[in-house]
């Protein structure tokens, strides 16, 4: 987590192709296949291979943009690792506190859920001990699929 934080801060400070560089950092640490499958929820079983592949591709691009925007916003915040817990079966929870650089009492607590595969990948982030980004995204994706169908959702996230 410290390495990722330092990398993000350097990218933002250098301000050279920030979005592209942050996108590469996000690509390396997020578990896109797991995030895509989880976000699609019950519809994953209904989707054929083409739909799964296309959804994973467009949703990965979408979620990467979301995370890049957030990383850029919080790049100057101080970060302190509060705890690391093993959840079992190669899964860990890393809790960090991000502190606003000018207002020390203005902070946010994030809990990164990390899965150990060939490398460590982030599978979820919880905000202030409650809001799960993955669950929030799943709700949003399910609403889009209910409204437009699977192919419509693919088109929606392609835009």
TrEMBL record:
UniProt-listed InterPro entries: MlaC/ttg2D, Tgt2/MlaC_sf
Annotated Gene3D superfamilies: Tgt2/MlaC
Protein name: Toluene tolerance, Ttg2 family protein
Gene source species: Anaplasma phagocytophilum str. CRT53-1
């Amino acid at each position: 987590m410290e390495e990722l934080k330092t990398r993000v801060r350097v990218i933002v400070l250098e301000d050279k192709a920030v979005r592209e560089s942050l996108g590469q950092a996000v690509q390396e640490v997020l578990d896109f296949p797991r995030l895509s499958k989880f976000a699609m929820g019950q519809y994953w079983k209904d989707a054929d291979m083409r739909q799964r592949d296309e959804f994973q591709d467009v949703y990965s691009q979408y979620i990467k943009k979301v995370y890049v925007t957030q990383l850029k916003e919080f790049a100057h915040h101080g970060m302190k690792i509060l705890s690391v817990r093993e959840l079992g079966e190669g899964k860990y929870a890393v809790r960090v506190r991000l502190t606003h650089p000018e207002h020390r009492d203005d902070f946010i607590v994030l809990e990164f859920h990390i899965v150990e595969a060939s490398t460590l990948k982030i599978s979820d982030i919880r905000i202030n001990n409650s809001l799960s980004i993955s669950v929030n995204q799943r709700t949003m994706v399910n609403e889009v699929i209910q409204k437009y169908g699977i192919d419509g959702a693919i088109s929606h996230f392609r835009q």
